[in-house]
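Quarterly update from the structural biology core.
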Amino acid sequence: MHKLLILPGLYNSDAGHWQSRWEALLPNACRVQQRDWNTPQQTDWTATLDAAIHSSDGPVILVAHSLGCALTAWWVKTSRGQAHASKVRGALLVAPPDVERADFPDFVTGFAPMPRSEMPFRTIVAASSDDPWCALPKAQSWAQDWGAQFHDIGPRGHINAESGLGTWEQGRRWLDELQS
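Predicted structure, tokenized:
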């Protein structure tokens, strides 16, 4: 069974977020706890994710939301050639934020520009047509560069608790695809 590493974005995911619901429902899910959820530094977050992957027994699937997607792209860029990187077998990247925007929070450091390296594992990107943090064409462009399957889920905002997705069954089906 794959270990599911939950990678929330800025400020973490609250109890109503689909990531938190999945963590509570899925026995193989574990949240990667960042030291600082409020003023993220890419190098710190990447080191924390790398340590979580390194210490995992067996194969891993990354389940990222928002800044967790950028974290995944940075981890891929910095982990190439490391033996434990092969543990990651897939990633579900949901609502990648446009870290390159001029109005992106300046207290979030080191995540821009977004790495565009092809993911060395199966990847699914899900984006919303009205996400306030990323225009759909930008998310599609990243998905193409990453070699990912892309899904436009329609107007669902930032695909977070406010999107009203509950346990988000469509996302669970994509997660199941990655685990098969």
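The chain has one domain: 3-179.
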